[in-house]
Amino acid sequence: MTPKIAEYLRDHAPATPCLVLDVDRVEQNYRRLKAALPLARVYYAVKANPAAPILQRLTGLGSSFDAASFEEIEACLAAGAQPGAISYGNTVKKVSAIRAAHEAGVTMFAFDSEAELLKIARNAPGARVYCRILVKNEGAEWPLSRKFGCELDMARDLMVQAGELGLDPYGISFHVGSQQTSTAAYEGAIARVAMLFTDLKEAGVKLRMVNLGGGYPVRYRAEVPGIDDFGTAIMGAMTQHFGNDLPEMLIEPGRFMVGDAGVVSSEVVLVSRKGKDDPVRWVYLDIGRFGGLAETEGEAIKYAFRTPHDGGADGPVTIAGPTCDSTDTLYEKSNYRLPMALDCGDRVELLSTGAYVTTYAAQGFNGFRPLAEHYI
Ligand SMILES: Cc1ncc(COP(=O)(O)O)c(C=O)c1O
């Protein structure tokens, strides 16, 4: 929690549940990334948090943007981004959205299949295209697995075909999975990309760009490697495989950029037990899975909690949201402990919740309002 957020919560005590996000921290994270990977251009993954104050601050800093939909492209343009600084990074796009992006001046598009490549060729003629390949997601706490990307031999053929279709075969992308805790994941993926560069050069296609995707982690409950460790591993692998002929490098950080800039403030609605002697207390908060904490699915992302009683005696808890749906149970197996003194009415803060929370919040499931947002 940044001092600015702590002060805001103390002075304003905004109604819960709400996200309070410190936009200065986003700027610091952008600068830390640029320092760790000075040769890479940053394309902020808008999906992590598309709030206008974030997009405006990043535009001012010279950031580019990775958009998942035409709506995100519009949000970037409204924040002052140039269309040339926007990559349409979703490999699954409606024809109408491709056309609208092309008309808005967006020139860079991702694909991972022939059908998508043909859609781009027809509706965004001459666009720069990059093919997303499948890579291992081991080490990622929020893996993206097989949904996006294609095998190397297919990527090779599609990049040749891209040139034949009048498109600009620009480069290759991958995503090692979100909240990636292993630097080796990038090293393995870069080795695969380098093989493709060589194959395609032999086929007469000179690629110019590697898109290293997102994945850079945030500290939740457990320690993670620092951003400099990722920078060192990535640059080591790039020079090992490309030598002096380094291609342009793009990164698409989402979580790293905004995660630790935000705190969700919530209220304890009930503390109860399922049996008189049950050691485990159930702590029900006024935010749960449908209020935006979708990444607690499978207890994948383990947020850290702060309470007014920290430091006192604690005990085991199951933590749940407020709705009448049993999947709205956040943590049952991850050995969470909270202070014994915790009681209904207490405010509880969920740390590093600036990424992938606000946009996951349901509009009115069980009648609860979507998460309130304060950008400071
Ligand atoms: C294409 C693409 N780029 C970047 C990101 C951002 O990833 P992260 O938040 O792990 O940095 C995602 C996340 O889903 C993505 O799908």
TrEMBL record:
Pfam family, one: Orn_Arg_deC_N
Protein origin, superkingdom: Bacteria
EC class: lyase
SUPFAM superfamilies: Alanine racemase C-terminal domain-like (SSF50621), PLP-binding barrel (SSF51419)
Start and end residues of each Orn/DAP/Arg decarboxylase 2 N-terminal domain: 24-258
Pathway(s) the chain acts in: Amine and polyamine biosynthesis; putrescine biosynthesis via L-ornithine pathway; putrescine from L-ornithine: step 1/1
InterPro entries in alphabetical order: Ala_racemase/Decarboxylase_C (IPR009006), De-COase2_CS (IPR022657), De-COase2_N (IPR022644), De-COase2_pyr-phos_BS (IPR022653), Orn/DAP/Arg_de-COase (IPR000183), Orn_de-COase (IPR002433), PLP-binding_barrel (IPR029066)
Catalytic activity entry: L-ornithine + H(+) = putrescine + CO2
EC number: 4.1.1.17
PROSITE patterns in the record: ODR_DC_2_1, ODR_DC_2_2
CDD domains listed in its UniProt record: PLPDE_III_ODC
Cofactor: pyridoxal 5'-phosphate
Signal peptide, first to last residue: none
Keywords from the UniProt entry: Lyase, Pyridoxal phosphate
Protein family: Belongs to the Orn/Lys/Arg decarboxylase class-II family.
Protein name: ornithine decarboxylase
Protein species of origin: Roseomonas fluvialis
UniProt lineage: Bacteria, Pseudomonadati, Pseudomonadota, Alphaproteobacteria, Acetobacterales
